[in-house]
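TL;DR need structure tokens for one chain.
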Amino acid sequence: MDAEPHPAPNSPLAAFAVPNFRRFVAGQTISLVGSWTETVAQAILVLQLTHSGVWLGLTTATRYAPVLLLTPYAGVIVDRQTKRRLLLLTQSSLAAVSLVLGVLVLSGAVRLWMVFAVALAFGTLTALDNPARLAFISEMVGQRLIRNAVTLNSTLVNVGRAIGPIVAATLVSAVGVGWCFVLNAASFSAVIASLAALNVSQLHSSTPVRRARGQLRQGLAYARTVPEILAPLAMMVLIGTLTYEYEVSLPLFGREALHGGPTTYSALFAAFGFGSILGGVYCTRHPKTGVPRMIRAAVMYAAAMLATALTSQTYAAVAALTVVGFASITFLTTGNSTVQLAARPDMRGRMTALWSTAFVGSTPIGATIIGAIGATSPRLMLLVGAGACAVAAITGLALLTHAPRSEIRPQANSGSRTFYLPWHMHTPEDLTEIERAGRRCAICRSGRRWRQLEVGRPEGQKPVVMCAACRARYGSAPPLPATQKAAPEPVVASEPAPKERTAPSEDRLRRALAQLPREPLSVGQVAKAAGLNHDKTLRRLRALEAAGEIQQVGKRWSNQPPSTDVEEAFDRLQAHTNNLRIIRDREPVG
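>> reply
TL;DR here they are.
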């Protein structure tokens, strides 16, 4: 039993009762204050060097281009590795990069190409750090507290967003822009120390995924077939590309439209961060997930961005940006929680990577577009952001309307109630049960694709495979056949186990193996002979290996069954007997 407490999930601060989460969030909050200080300082530095909104947009695009290109594959790496070790590596490297830029600025040797080079290195490390950090939250608090932990983490992230610009404005006016980068490098020591102080025995670590081909394609296909993941990603792509480009839009809006300086920009960003904190508190008090709440937040987001674009006074812009911050954090927190709750544990790293790509990775495209528009008309770029929020709301509504009505139930069943997993939450064990059932419903015996089947696991009984129609008709009390109602009897060792029904693809694979030569074969050779795809062939080969019908030799597969110890001893005895006969029959020499 875990030593950590198990608070009620509906408590607003329930996740803070987990010691590991408290340590990590405390260190991360300090580090994020430094990160947002550097973000503001980089924008001010580029404007001081170039006085151009286009160069500011290109610098921001360079910083986030690796996130767009590398984060999807980085999610595969996160699923394969220990997330705590990855975070220690990325945080240490990010500290070194910030320190290098700070030294260059303080020494007076900084040039624009150096800023581009450091931004590229920073973005490459961020591509690996973001999905690892998001996926690590569930390992600290467990499945029950994911929603609450994500909300609290997002709220404290925006505490850093609110405090960072104030710290940057103070440092820039007092000692210069270079010390902002040095401060950020020092702030990474807090999160590194918190990671080192975690109690590893209390982590809910997921089993690392074995390295295999096609894992990135598998993650993309999984996201496309889960409505609770596809809709948030589609909405986030639109808003992340054209709306969430405040590193470019707010400096240009403050300088050109409001005729202010770094202080005005810092005030705008602080107002946005303050509104984000209010939104985080609201989400903590009202912990809900789902696409409908994201749609409502996107509508509020569009209205607030429209009001900001039409203001001409700084105090009015500050008030409007407070509402923008409230709507943005509500949208982000709800979307992040929805994606993590809908994703299977073995897919969570890849799903959070896709969320990071949609959120942060879209910045290279959006920053360039918004920077070019802002150089012509700062108000127009905010109107474009408002339009993107409106289109995102329409997109989410369309996907929600056409999505199959299936209820997400991430926790196991309680009591004797039958617990059914919808098709988009199928585990490998569920897929095995569907294949064993011949992809047929246990009630109506009609054939279905695996996406149209659900798996029920009644307590003390065999798993039940049902189609969506029978599930909707009979609910949790289906009229199961007599063979399905009784619990499986234990198999006596002296009697052979009854032969289970096999899937058609498994029979096809057996016939192909019987026709192939008796030598180790690659998965591609077997797949071509059986007419199956690579992933299905590999699953069937592993099932046959577990049944003792074939054996794996390195990375190849032998269609000869593994020999037992008695057979090996008999073969050695027969070979020895043959050698004695040869010696006996040999004619004497001389």
